Each structure stands twice: as C-alpha cells, then as structure tokens.
Amino acid sequence: MTRHIVARTTDIPPGGNKVFGVDGRDIVVFHVNGEFFALLNRCPHAGAPLEKAACVARLTSPEPGVFERSRVGELLRCAWHGWEFDMRNGQSWFDPKRFKIRSYPVAIESGEEVAKELEDGLAKGPYVAETFPVHVEDSYVIIET
Amino acid sequence: MAATRIDCDIHPAVGGTRTTLLPYLDDHWKEQVVSRAIDGLDLNSYPPSMPLSGRADWRPAVGKPGGDLAMVQRGAFDQLGASHAICNVVYGAQAVFDPYMASAFCKAINDWIATEWLSKDKRLRASIVVPMQAPDLAVDEIERLAPDDRFVSVLVLAQGDMLLGKRHFWPVYQAAAKHKLPIAIHAGSQYRGAPSSVGWPSYRYEYYLMEAQAFQAQLLSLVYEGVFGKFPDLKVVLMESGVSWLPAFMWRANKTWRGVRVEVPWVEAEPATLIRKHVRVTMQPFDGPPDATGVADIIEQIGSDQMFLFASDYPHWQFDGDDPMPPHLPASIVSRMCADNPLETFPRLKLAA
Amino acid sequence: MSDVIDRPILEQEVAAKSRLRIIDCDVHPSIHAQSDLYQFMPKRWQEHLKEYGSHLRTPYIGTTPYPRSSPLIARRDAWPPTGGPPGSDLPFMQKQHLDPFDVEYGILQVLDLFIFSQQNLEFGAAIQRAINDWQLAFWSDRDPRLKASIVAGQDDTQLAIAEIERCARIGRYVQINVCPRANEPLGRRRYWPIYARAQELDLPLGIHVGGYGGHAPTGGGWPSYYAEEHQSNAHTMAAMLTSLVLEGIPERFPKLKIVFIEGGFGWIPPATWRMDRQFETFRSEVPHLKRKPSEYVKEHFWFTTQPIDEPDEGKHLRALIDWVGVDRLLFSSDYPHWDFDDPRYAFRTPLSEIERQKIFSTNARAVYKF
C-alpha cells in the first residue's frame, strides 16, 4: 500500500469533489457529511467519469409512495446511466457483490502529523514534494492505493 | 384417467346476452336487455367469424365456436388430451361503460359458466369475470364467488382504460390474493384508447400483434407501481401473450430500472426477478423461433421453468392438428407445464373436483 | 456464469483490431436558444414562436409529463463548459465525442422544439424548415462529418413533401425523418405519398423514437413513471414495424430503405416470429403481402443499436444479434443522452472483425450511400 497526499481538506468543498492523478489512475475524492471518500474515477459499467455523478441520498421505501432518505449526499448516481453507488465502499445498489467501483482508504491528517512523517522519510508519493508544501495548520487528504 | 394435463386457457362462448345470459340476469336487467335490445357484445378483439377466433374443424354448424359444451369437451379433452381445463370467457361485459351493467353481465357470465359448464363436467374450472370499470364491484364479485373453488382465477383484459398496476385497482388484487386467485390477464381490449402508442391499426392482424406490447406494458405497470411488493402472494398469469418477447423485455426492464430506480424505490428487486417470481404464461400461442436451438435459447433466456403453463387456447386457431404443445420445447419444461406449474399457479385447482 | 460482466472493461476491445472509423447513426445536436432559429424563419413565425410557442398534445408548454432521470435527458458530463445545453456546442462535441471515437460520420437527429408534434401544422412546418437550414449552417458546414436529416412532419403530407423536395434540391441531407408517434400508424395510406416521394428521391426514411401523437404511450393507458414510458419506446417501434410491414410499405415501395433509430433491437425477433406465425391465419386480411413479414424485415429495414440490450450473459446478446442479423444493425451512440452507448463497451460479446466493420461502418455506408 502506498500513501499519497493529494490535497488539503480545504481544497475540496463540502458537497463537492476533486479528481487527482495517482499512480496513473484518476481518483475522485468526495467531501460529504464531514468525511472524505476516494473512488476510481470510472464507473465499472461503461467507464463514465464519476466526478460528474449526482450525489444523492440513500433512498429506500417500505411501500409505494413512501420515500425514506438517509446518508444524504453519500450515494452517487452515475453521470451516464444513473447506476447508484455507495461512496463509502463503491458498491452498486443493484448488485453490490458483482458491481462496485474501486474504492480507496482515505485518511485525514494534520499538517503536523504529515510533516513529521515526511521528516521520518516515509515517502508519500509523487505529489508531495512538488505540489503540496505542507503547512502544519492545514489538514491533508491521504489516499492509500 | 390419463396423465394430468391441465389446459389453462379454453374459451366457452356466450351465444348472446339476450339468449345465453338472460336466465342469469335479475328482473331489472332482463327488462333492459330485452326492451332495449342490448346484445352483440362480442369483443372487437375476437369477432366470431374471424379465422383466428375458431379453427375450421372447431366451428359448429350453428352458433359460435366454443358455444357448445359437447363440442368443447370433444375438442379440449378427447382430441387435445387435457385432463382438466380452465374456462376463460372473453365476452364484452368487461367493455361496457355503465359499471352496473358491467357488474350484472359479469355476474351472469359467471353464474352461466358455473351452472351450465362447471356443474356438467367435473374436469372444468373457470376464471371469475369481473367489472374492472368499478374495482369495488369487482371485489364484490370476487367475494361472492370465493367460496366456490371451481373458480380458480380472476380474468381481466390486457387493454383497459387504465394500466393494471395503478392504485385504483389494488382492492381487486387484495381480494384476489386473499382468496389465492391469480389474476389472469387475457388478450383482449376495452378499446378505450388506441391499442398502441402509434395509433389505431387498420387490420385485425396488426391489432393482434399490438397485443403483445400491451402485455409488456401491463407487466411494467404491475412491477413499477409496486403491486408485487404490496401483495407478495399475488400471481399474475398472462394468457395468449406469445411469450417469446419475455427475455428482451426483461433485459430492457432491468437495464432501465438500474438507472431510474429513484423513481420507484419501493421496487425491491430487479424487474426480471419479480417477474420470474410472480408471473406465469400460457404457452399457446408461443411465438417461438422456428428451430429447436432457438426455442431452447428463448426458454433458457426466460430463466425459470416454473413460468410455463400448458394451454390449447381452444377454439382459437393457433395450431393445426391434435397437439397443442408448441414444437421443440425442452423435455424438462413439458412435464412441468402440464401439471406442476398449473397446480402451483392455481392453488384452488383441485384435481378431484 | 457471468463471463462478460465481470471482466474489467479496460481490457475489453479497447483498441480496434483495425483502425476502424465509426459511423454514429444517432447524434443529437441542440439549439443554444430559440433565437438561433430566427434567422431561418420569416418574421411571422418568429413572432408566433415567441408569443404562442409550442402547442402540443401534452399538458405542458415546454416539457414532458414524464420527467426524465437527468436534466435534459443528458449525461451529466455533457454540459459544455462554455454554457448552453448538452449538444449545443460543436467544439465540445468534437472534443468529447467525435474526435476521441474517430467518428467518420455522425448523423444528426434533432429533437428540439418537439418538431414533429406541433398541433399547428403550418407552424410545425416553419420550425422544421428552420431546423433543416440550421443543421447545415450550424453543424454540417462547420464540421463535414456531421450529416443532416430532413425533418418532415408527416401529419400534413403536402407540407412534408414540399419540405422534402426543398431539402432534396439542396442535396446535403442523408435521410428523411418522420415520427413514430403521430396521428396514425406510419403504415396508413395517408402517409403513402411521402414514401413514394422518398423512394423517387432515393432517400432513406429515418424514424427516431419520440413524439406526442395524442395516444397514450401504451395500449393499456398512460403509465405513471418515466421508467415505464422510457421502455415503451421499444413497444412503439414494434407496433410501427408491424404497421409498416402489414400495410405493405416494403411491398409498395420496394426501393425505400427504412431505418429505426434509438429503438434498440431486442424486440425485433419476437415481433417477426409473431408476425410470421400469424401470417397464415390472417392472410386473407392482407392479400397485398406477397411474402412473409420477416422477409420484408430482413431486406428493407435497418435498426440502430442503441440502447443495446444488456443480458447477464454475453452469449444471449450473441443469440440476439444472430436472430436479427448483423447486416441489419447500425451503430449509434445517442450522444449526449444519458443512456448513451459507448462504442468501446456497448457490445459485451465478441464480434468478428467483419461484424465490427459492418455494425460500425459498412452497413451505414450502404444505407446512406457514403
């Protein structure tokens, strides 16, 4: 597992997302309900970019006409064919076992923690040195691939 | 008796409202029918003289095909080899606009079938004909006949004035499910609107082909309105639908649902799963490919051995000769079609009446 | 069991074995605003458009009573960054779709302003004329890969034929578009003069799903949900095929090529099996038919592939293609709509090189004479 620092938390607004190139892949990071989720930016159905997906509630219903919402904003409706995926683990709604988006563990660390790890020589990835000077007052989004 | 072979779709014919049904109408409707000459309610979908409506050798010298009990017995049982048969009367009581007339006529049809057919031959069963013009009156008729378990299903037409899944009809399904009566959707139209989205066809041949699409629209309605979730014990039987459209239809339904599920979140499984669980189909006509491999493919694509029901569709002209079994069907489903599946689909159908 | 779906799509037929340029038979350009059309309309109709707008057989002035599952029926990533609706920006269309897929020709299908469904037939004709001009000026002129189709509302045959002839004289249109959901089924006698003229002009007839003809989307009435109404397109196409074949259009106009657009093709085999099966039973009703219905279908009709069927097993898609016949299929993407088919992944069953060429190129070349 390689850890990559991709952004400061403030770079991704709540309810929004950003795409990062990591290890030759496009990874999209969502910021919702105070958490960050990282997914491969390709729908397993036909490759649609997920950064343009609609972020919606998890919608269930015990009977016709009743709409139950939970985890608002944490479900993706793919930008093309509308398939629903859980941001948290990439699983599709209609067949969670067979269809899922590749998802990546995300950690949030303070600038202080990150600075210390860099000092200790634990390499983070190609972007650390060039793109993200680390400030101790910021928090950082770290993806594991 | 020979092996069990339940023919799930035969058509006794009502000779006329003023003749066949008159004894079964109350005094008010007797007077209306006679003094106003209300008759001739043969559906446009099945004009008796049309070749499809009656195979040449099944037409009596006088009267409509299916009008004579003895002839029907000879045909369905002796010639075509059924051990039992379900009578589905497709006469136009379902299509009049006056809901009380519809109710009275449906009642008359059901009483006529019970008295002059079911009571005369223990091998016969019937669908309850109901006035879907007024769902509450339809429920009344279901409740009235529920104690008579020679009635094994509820008959509705494939094209009415509203798609069958709508909330408007749910009391009918509640009553039907309660009494273990599957809903038999039979080809035929109330002609409230054009029989397809492209408009009114020139030919009866064309209309008959549009019927296949109507069945599909009805299934989508039942699935998406949540009828199968609401009434988990309900079964639906498609009668005379053609069947071979099922695979591509189910693929498209699944495909659409995966992307548009947010419209109908109460649909708890993929449409194909619900259809395999709740829907059954009679196998005459079976619009299959002409070759055995193709038929095997279609059957495999449909994906459930439990769906298929043997039927002759007597006296409609769907095949020549004495064998109503469509050609090339895999052996595994042939035996299921004749006994297991009908008995499972029509729980009220007891072999010994 | 599921051999195809589980395969990561990256490995699946990403690179063509040969450098195949594709012909996309269903691309939807969009107007930026109604005012785009003013230059192609006389003042009288500009004013009418502004004051009265569309008069349709639906409850709303500008939208459908079956709201779609995404804005403007489009893919969410197809909104041009410069503004305007999906399909309205040529450079963005080139960048997102035409160039990456190496589209050799993209055949335009215009749906704006409910062109076929205007109850005011003269107004409809004015819009159609404007859109036919707009297709050339805004699209074909600026990117010669994009080929225009003559939109001609069939419910007034005289107006339709006048517009067909006008556009045929210009000579840069590849087909004549009519609408499946109109007043009457397309096989009906009142529309025959259009087919006669199309045959004389040697232009194929292209029929794209849609329209508000005044009939419910199904024979059993009006569905509640877009999910139902969307699938009803397949039923519409089946009913329309029936009408055209049974009324004898291929028999009466044997040189006319007919293309069904955006109906997919899964519904075709059962429709032809049923037609053939009942042919003898109903033969006396249709004595003008000299051949079995399926024979007419195999020689006079073509079908664009989107939305392609997605059975769980690839072999079922193969069976379907074999039943329809690979010669009948014309690839289409339906760009920029949400249920768009990506040419790289749409066919989740192996195709031989010849089959790929046919579906993605040579069949369309034959129909449209490229």
Topology:
The complex is a heterotrimer of chains A (145), B (353) and C (370).
Chain A: E1 3-8, E2 17-22, E3 25-32, E4 35-40, E5 54-60, E6 68-77, E7 84-86, E8 103-104, E9 106-110, H1 111-119, H2 127-131, E10 139-144
Antiparallel strand pairs in A: 1-10, 2-3, 3-4, 4-8, 5-6, 6-7, 9-10
Chain B: E1 6-10, H1 27-35, H2 69-79, E2 84-87, H3 99-118, E3 124-129, H4 135-145, E4 151-159, H5 170-178, E5 183-189, H6 204-224, H7 227-230, E6 236-239, H8 246-260, H9 271-278, E7 279-282, H10 292-302, E8 308-309, H11 331-345
Parallel strand pairs in B: 1-2, 2-3, 3-4, 4-5, 5-6, 6-7, 7-8
Chain C: E1 22-27, H1 43-51, H2 90-98, E2 103-108, H3 121-140, E3 146-151, H4 157-170, E4 173-178, H5 192-201, E5 205-208, H6 226-246, H7 249-252, E6 258-261, H8 268-282, H9 293-300, E7 301-304, H10 314-324, E8 329-330, H11 353-368
Parallel strand pairs in C: 1-2, 2-3, 3-4, 4-5, 5-6, 6-7, 7-8
Helix pairs in contact in C: 3-4, 4-5
Structural overview:
The complex is a heterotrimer of chains A (145), B (353) and C (370). Chain A has 145 residues and is mainly beta. Chain A has one domain: Rieske [2Fe-2S] iron-sulphur domain (Rieske Iron-sulfur Protein), CATH 2.102.10.10. Chain A is 10% helix and 41% strand. In chain A, the strands form three sheets. A four-stranded antiparallel sheet of chain A has the order 2-3-4-8, with no helix packed on it. A three-stranded antiparallel sheet of chain A has the order 1-10-9. With 353 residues, chain B is α/β, with parallel strands linked by helices. Chain B has one domain: TIM Barrel (Alpha-Beta Barrel). Chain B contains eleven helices and eight strands. In chain B, strands 1-2-3-4-5-6-7-8 form an eight-stranded parallel sheet. Chain B is globular and about 55 Å long. Chain B starts with 5 loop residues before the first strand and ends in an 8-residue tail after the last helix. The relative contact order of chain B is 0.15. The mean pLDDT of chain B is 96. Chain C has 370 residues and is α/β, with parallel strands linked by helices. Chain C has one domain: Alpha-Beta Barrel (TIM Barrel). Chain C is built from eleven helices and eight strands. In chain C, strand 2, helix 3 and strand 3 form a beta-alpha-beta unit. At the B-C interface, helix 6, helix 8 and helix 10 of B face helix 6, helix 8 and helix 10 of C.
